[in-house]
Amino acid sequence: MADPMRIRAQAAGDKATVRVLMAHEMETGQRKDSAGKTIPAWFIQDVVASHNGKQVFSAQWGPAVSKNPFLQFNVKGAKAGDKITVTWTDNKGDKRTDEATVS
């Protein structure tokens, strides 16, 4: 299982800014190791975010996203104490879900 995501969610007015740092190698499948063998592709494909259980964001990614990707988005109607949940799934079927409370 991958390292936990670092999620920060801060309320400002009628919205919250959510910042997510994901720990993932994000291999493109085009690089070679020291022996000259191709390193297999391994990258996050789907990202879904929820606000108090209701989906508010989804994305489909490919191999062009950098290692340890950073994601930022706004959630309208979020206030302090609400829960933000972020889940990603990679092309090998690995999955990670983490949660943060809006401050």
Q: From N to C, what is the helix and strand string?
A: EEEEEEE
First and last CA, distance: 27 Å
Quickly count the domains: 1
The H-level CATH homologous superfamily, spelled out, is Immunoglobulins
Overall geometric form: elongated
Task: Give the C-level CATH assignment.
Answer: Mainly Beta
Please state the average pLDDT score.
94
Features:
Immunoglobulin-like, three-stranded antiparallel β-sheet, mainly beta, 103 residues, four-stranded antiparallel β-sheet
Can you give a write-up of this model?
This protein has no helices and 7 strands. It has 103 residues and is mainly beta. It has a single domain (6-101), classed as Immunoglobulin-like (Sandwich), CATH 2.60.40.10. A 4-stranded antiparallel β-sheet has the order 4-3-6-7, with no helix packed on it. Strands 1-2-5 form a 3-stranded antiparallel β-sheet, with no helix packed on it. A hairpin with a 2-residue loop joins strand 1 and strand 2. The two termini are 27 Å apart.
Task: Provide a short characterization of the protein structure.
The chain has about 100 residues and is mainly β.
